[in-house]
Write a structure and sequence with these properties.
By secondary structure, the protein is α/β, with parallel strands linked by helices. 42% of the residues lie in helices and 19% in strands. Helix 11 runs antiparallel to helix 14, helix 13 crosses helix 14 and helix 14 runs antiparallel to helix 15. The longest helix is centred in the C-terminal third of the chain and has 27 residues.
Length: 371
């Protein structure tokens, strides 16, 4: 039996569920920390686990270049190599390749591109991408697609979506079903409702273990993103998990969960941790600001992470001003903990049938600020 998802409870369009995989069970809605190159930056695997994270994301493009898919396979797969026995979702490499506009050539069969590291030539097709993800031992494999840029004309978006749907069918044919593993298709169509609807229909006909929504969080703004979700989410199969790729801020997550999204990933908490930006129950802070230099209190009194339990804001400010690596390590840990606690609160609120009230309370505390 391939990977499955069980619906446990609902609150409006929001869903509480459980994802059953070969590498363990995951409660949804879930946020996946991004482990681009076989590591969540600045974090040990034990530290990531301590936050409550159970599902992480790996990056096909970066891992195929370094150390290479065959090397990862020789080392026992990504789970063993990075000490993460839990489930791993790998993106297909499509987003990274498509962002290399000056270094790649697109054709109907796939993409030829040059490495951003050393300029060496490489090729990705749906079949190659799926095979690389198999060698990585990805629990969840993503279909190879073209991430449509924003902005794009309706005609260009249509051509891109149709290409992605052809590639989705080839990805499905190339995928080797194994118990507890799954392949997700990716809905495309930009900001055009008819194209999104056509993509959703094509993907359902092909059949996948889960359905992602791609091509958002690329500059269109939250209002437009939510409008797209309002149109496309009801068109996706209700008995399968729904994954909004590359999203996002805490408020993005609250809004998307309310519309029926089950899975998220984003580099925001880890990238922010390396640049002194803290996500807290009282809003977002920049720890480089002078106001924190003498604040002998926890960053967030509601957070159980080691930073908040053992260190002051003043100490963290000092670490960043001195460019000590411990600063990004501690703040990344905190940010991931905040995101995992946000998701736990969301799941509890859905179970209790009070997601709207819970979301309002979370936003109210952000608005109150650091009182």
């Amino acid at each position: 039996m391939t990977l499955t998802w069980t619906h446990l409870a609902g609150d409006g369009a929001a869903r509480l569920g459980r994802l059953h995989t070969a590498h363990g069970t995951v409660e949804t809605p879930v946020f996946m920390p991004v482990g681009t190159a076989g590591t969540v930056k600045a974090m040990t695997a034990d530290a990531v686990r301590s936050t409550g994270a159970r599902l992480i994301l790996g990056n096909t493009y970066h891992l195929m270049l370094r150390p290479g898919a065959d090397r990862v396979a020789q080392l026992g797969g990504l789970h063993r190599m990075m000490d993460w026995p839990g489930p791993i979702l790998t993106d297909s490499g499509g987003f990274q390749v498509m962002s290399l506009a000056a270094l790649r050539t697109l054709d109907a069969d796939g993409v030829t591109f040059r490495s951003h590291i050393d300029g060496s030539a490489h090729r990705l097709t749906p079949e190659i991408s799926v095979e690389i993800q198999r060698k990585l031992d990805a629990t969840i494999t993503m279909a190879f697609d073209e991430c449509t840029p924003f902005p794009a004309t309706e005609d260009d978006t249509r051509k891109s979506m149709e290409l992605s749907m052809r590639w989705a069918a080839r990805s499905r044919a190339a995928f080797q079903p194994r118990p507890g593993y799954g392949l997700f298709g990716i809905n495309q169509g930009g900001v055009f409702p008819e194209l999104r609807a056509r993509s959703a229909e094509a993907l359902e006909k092909i059949g996948f273990e889960g359905y992602a929504i791609g091509g958002l969080a690329v500059g269109e703004g939250q209002e437009t993103m939510l409008s797209v979700l309002d149109g496309v989410v009801p068109l996706l199969p209700g008995d399968k998990p729904r994954y909004l790729m590359g999203v996002g801020t805490p408020d993005d997550i609250l809004q998307a969960v309310a519309r029926g999204i089950d899975m998220f990933d984003c580099v925001i908490p880890t990238r922010a941790g390396r640049t002194a930006r803290a996500y807290t129950s009282r809003g977002v802070f920049n720890l480089r600001n002078a106001r924190f230099a003498a604040e002998d209190r926890a960053l967030d009194e509601d957070c159980p992470c080691p930073l908040c339990a053992r260190h002051s804001r003043a100490y963290l400010h000092h670490l960043f001003r001195c460019e000590e690596m411990l600063g990004p390590m501690l703040l990344t840990w905190h940010n991931i903990q905040y995101y995992q606690d946000l998701m736990a609160g969301i799941r509890a609120a859905i179970a209790a049938g009070r997601l709207a009230a819970h979301s309002d309370a979370v936003r109210a505390r952000w608005a109150e600020g650091d009182q």
